[in-house]
Each structure stands twice: as structure tokens, then as C-alpha cells.
Design brief:
The protein has 139 residues and is mainly alpha-helical. The chain is built from 7 helices and 5 strands. Strand 4 and strand 5 form a beta hairpin.
């Protein structure tokens, strides 16, 4: 299983309370005992989606909560996203080197020539509107 297959299979897991399901002899999944007995073939096995997800994570090489926590921290750092909200995480005050500032201003000049607004450029680069405005004024 690939990471993408894992994401596709379990993407709705956190949105439901129904993590226990029944699986019949043919591998069909039922979310209630009644449904399983009406439509499925015996024998039935009760399974837990969380347990299945953990087994699939193990097959991907992630074998403990500690490793999962480290991976989440790394992904949050790399992408700047809070896993709970899927919004950019706030990182507090950000400082820029002179080279970074010059590069961003050069990008802004190109974007401005293409008709991009300061607000849109700020959102795209992650530089606050106020900081960008100050840099443009200073340059």
C-alpha cells in the first residue's frame, strides 16, 4: 500500500464515530449487524477501522505512536500546516535575511508587472501585507 492509497482509504476516518464494522466471508463490509445478516455471507468478523489503519501504517514502516508523532511534527514543520485545522500554522514573528528580502522584492516586481495585487502576492509568498508594503516603501 502506498501513502496515497492509505489516505484514500482512511480519509473519512476522523469524521465518523462508526469505526467498528462487520466483514463477511467474501470481504464485503457492513456497518451494522442487521445489514450484515441480511446481505452478507457467514462467517462474519467484527473489525475496527483504527486497527486496520494501524496495520496498514505498520506495512508502510510506521510502527509506533512515537514514530507517528515525529512524522506529524516533521510534516507540520515542512508544510506549515496544523493537522487538526488544515490551515497554515502560525509560526510567530518571522525574520528575513537581506537576500530573502531582495528575492521577494524581485518576485514582487514581476508579479506587479503581471497585474497581481499586493494582497494576493502576500498570501502566495507568506509575507504579511504590512511587511511587503514596508519593504516596497523602503526600496
Amino acid at each position: 500500500m502506498s501513502i496515497q492509497e492509505f489516505l484514500n482509504k482512511y480519509s473519512d476516518l476522523s469524521k465518523t464515530n462508526a469505526v467498528v464494522y462487520m466483514e463477511d466471508a467474501d470481504g464485503n463490509i457492513f456497518h451494522s449487524i442487521d445489514e450484515a445478516h441480511k446481505k452478507g455471507k457467514h462467517p462474519f468478523v467484527t473489525k475496527n477501522l483504527k486497527d486496520s489503519a494501524i496495520a496498514d501504517l505498520n506495512s508502510l514502516g510506521l510502527s509506533s505512536k512515537g514514530e507517528a508523532s515525529k512524522l506529524m511534527g516533521i510534516l507540520q514543520f515542512i508544510y506549515g500546516v496544523d493537522a487538526k485545522t488544515e490551515k497554515p500554522a502560525t509560526r510567530g514573528r518571522r525574520t528575513y535575511s537581506a537576500e530573502e528580502k531582495a528575492g521577494i522584492l524581485a518576485e514582487w516586481k514581476k508579479a506587479e508587472a503581471e497585474g497581481k495585487t499586493k494582497a494576493d502576492f502576500s498570501k502566495d509568498t507568506g509575507v504579511t501585507y504590512q511587511t511587503l508594503f514596508k519593504w516596497i516603501k523602503e526600496s
